[in-house]
Amino acid sequence: MPTLRDLETPALLLDMARMHHNCARMRTHLAPLGVTLRAHVKTAKSAPLVRAMLGAATGPVTVSTLREAEACFAEGMTDILYAVGIAPNKLPHVHDLRRRGAKVIIILDSVAAAQAVGEAARASRDPFDVLIEIDADGHRAGVAPDSAALLDIARTLKDSGARLRGVMTHAGESYYARTPDARRAASHGERDAVVLAAGRLRADGHNCDIVSVGSTPTALFADELTGVTEVRAGVYVFQDLVMAGIGVCTVDEIAISVLVSVIGHQPSKGWIITDGGWMSMSRDRGTSVQAIDQSYGVVCDLAGKPLDDLAMLSGSQEHGIVGRRKGDTRPVPELPVGTLLRVLPNHACATAAAHERYVQVEGASPVVIGTIARVNNW
Amino acid sequence: MPTLRDLETPALLLDMARMHHNCARMRTHLAPLGVTLRAHVKTAKSAPLVRAMLGAATGPVTVSTLREAEACFAEGMTDILYAVGIAPNKLPHVHDLRRRGAKVIIILDSVAAAQAVGEAARASRDPFDVLIEIDADGHRAGVAPDSAALLDIARTLKDSGARLRGVMTHAGESYYARTPDARRAASHGERDAVVLAAGRLRADGHNCDIVSVGSTPTALFADELTGVTEVRAGVYVFQDLVMAGIGVCTVDEIAISVLVSVIGHQPSKGWIITDGGWMSMSRDRGTSVQAIDQSYGVVCDLAGKPLDDLAMLSGSQEHGIVGRRKGDTRPVPELPVGTLLRVLPNHACATAAAHERYVQVEGASPVVIGTIARVNNW
To answer: Which residues in chain A touch residue B112, judged by CB atoms under 8 angstroms apart?
Structure first.
């Protein structure tokens, strides 16, 4: 059997045991809440891993790109929510997917976008399936649940022959919710926003069979989701240092890491130099605003055990600089040229996106079980 | 002919006229200095674009990954410097490339790495070709040019039957050199470091036919390179906001941009929301330490003209938030849903790496000339 010592570095490792644990945790948490899990593909970007998230073969799923939609559809998943406000230039592709049998649902948050969808609906004789995006916390996109615009959008869709299916929201601010109570409050905020919006739409005579919320922090801490039909989440499949930093997971639940080699040293600076630069880790520095700044990542030994407080302090394209955090004056451990290390990422979505495949491992074993391809780009 | 309006967004655009201008500028600058340009593939990651950099078909080239080496070799380029300190796990691949006819040169900066290469040389009966990496400015890797270690490494290579070809350095600190004088000084520092090291190696009886320096800021501002045989540079092919921020280029010389669509608005916040998030721009924030922080990028109209001081202020995975910079209280211009924008990147290497291909355009024309594939990953 090949082992990690047979690989060229850098390489993206996926600990299958941790990944399955993370998937089971989410399903177990949601089961008593009476909601469907609509797994978000954006982190794993791989149909086999999405099946592991769902514990089922065919969905439903959320995608962040139409390429993810194509990959899921090719593997038999047909219930697909494309959860980025629709750009008019993507409507022909969405229609083509639907014509081939994918039940793609799109989202929008303005009368202008509803008009564009309405025009495409008339031209293609495809009503599309549309959710209105609700703003639960001022984080990003969406229309306020108590706004006049909500009803204007619904009426625009109805007048143009497009098909309104319901509402969705994403509490992006939950990524900064550092306590279980704060995450529960964010979950209640998501729920209350979409339930209010759905009630207003129904009272105005519109259909609203999908009431969708989600983010990893709110999903894992939700306690009461009356009125919600489904939960979307993605990053929990791997977890990462940002999630660990706010208490959503522990560091030893993080399922992906980047395997790197020591290629040199600068002893006078306390630097260990590796062949894992920002190209393999991404430039994400999500923990820089947290209580503990993990720099570019936590450095572990080949078995995945964090190494005596070493971090990847900085990086250039294909070089990583590993050392002690600021203020820690202890000498670095001896790690000769050729030593293999695993680096845990700030943000799983960004680090995984730097790689075209996962190398599957399990726990501390160096045995390579296999590889799984990713569906990157657009 | 297809135009930018026929694309799905986000998409990476390459202005061929600007790219050719940047390539000509570098060749014109280096021509009187009596050095060879060894184009760095790390930015363009595409053999056709490397040919444009060289103004020639077959090299020499510098690569940051062995996959770049494979792609260049497949296109007839055989003189290839792999400019990341060699990890022992890559020596079989390097040997295999060499066995097939690629004259791959590797680098190292320690006796330990020289011993690993020596062992591989004996086992494979391939002497390899080796440069010793010199530290010119304390930026990253390399051995000091006046150190005892320099000669120890050379002797270790000689004793093991490996072939020393010379020395190389990279003045990474030049990325922070904000004046022409500072960049010339950095170039002199690169030159002096490798010329000193080469002199000491020759005096100790070692071959040193390659004396290699390079970075875009030092290459474009070098004025005297006696003793240097070749210059490596990569980012100049596209340029970017970091290079513009230190004065190496102007904003209107930047050859790549990301085409995005407006998908919504948050008028109360002055936000225009696009479908270009950090996934398409990268998380690189290189200008954050410069005099003008360009956030995630400068926002231009469809013709590539900067739009009234708009910047991409932040992003999530597939969403960009465009607005005015901090302190600028003017209202944002009206950009309806579906409006196409071009966003100029902080760091060309990082932004281009988020995409699998370039869409070729020229100047302000919306006509799509064609596409060029990239060679990403490892």
So the answer is: 336-338
Domain B34-237 carries which CATH code?
A: 3.20.20.10
Provide the residue count of chain A. Answer: 378
The third-level CATH classification (topology) of the domain covering A34-235 is TIM Barrel (3.20.20)
Q: What is the pLDDT along chain A (378 residues), one digit of tens a residue?
A: 899 999 999 999 999 999 999 999 999 999 999 999 999 999 999 999 999 999 988 889 999 999 999 999 999 999 999 999 999 999 999 999 999 999 999 999 999 999 999 999 999 999 999 999 999 999 999 999 999 999 999 999 999 999 999 999 999 999 999 999 999 999 999 999 999 999 999 999 999 999 999 999 999 999 999 999 999 999 999 999 999 999 999 999 999 999 999 999 999 999 999 999 999 999 999 999 999 999 999 999 999 999 978 999 999 999 999 999 888 989 999 999 999 999 999 999 999 999 999 999 999 999 999 999 999 999
| Beta-strand pair A298-300/B320-324 | unpaired
- From A376's Cα to the closest Cα of chain B, the distance in A is 9
Residue of B nearest to A175 (CA): B316
> Is CATH 3.40.50.1000 the right assignment for the domain spanning B4-12+255-373?
no
Q: Which residue of A has its CA nearest to B270?
A: A140
Q: Where are the domains of chain A?
A: 4-12+255-373, 34-235
How far apart (Å, rounded) are the C-alpha atoms in residues A105 and A85?
A: 11
Q: Quick one: which of A78, A42, A20, A17 has its CA closest to A234?
A: A42
Of the residues B12, B40, B266, B289, the best mutation for testing chain A's interface (the one with the most A CB atoms within 10 Å of its CB) is: B266
User: What is the distance between the alpha carbons of residues B26 and B22, in angstroms, rounded to a whole number?
Assistant: 6
**CB-CB contact of A368 with A2 (8 Å):** yes
Rounded to the nearest angstrom, the minimum Cα separation between B227 and chain A is: 27
Q: Do the Cβ atoms of A280 and B378 come within 8 Å?
A: yes
What is the 8-class DSSP label of residue A137?
S
ipTM over 0.90: yes
Across the interface, of B87, B93, B172, the residue whose CB is closest to A316 is B172
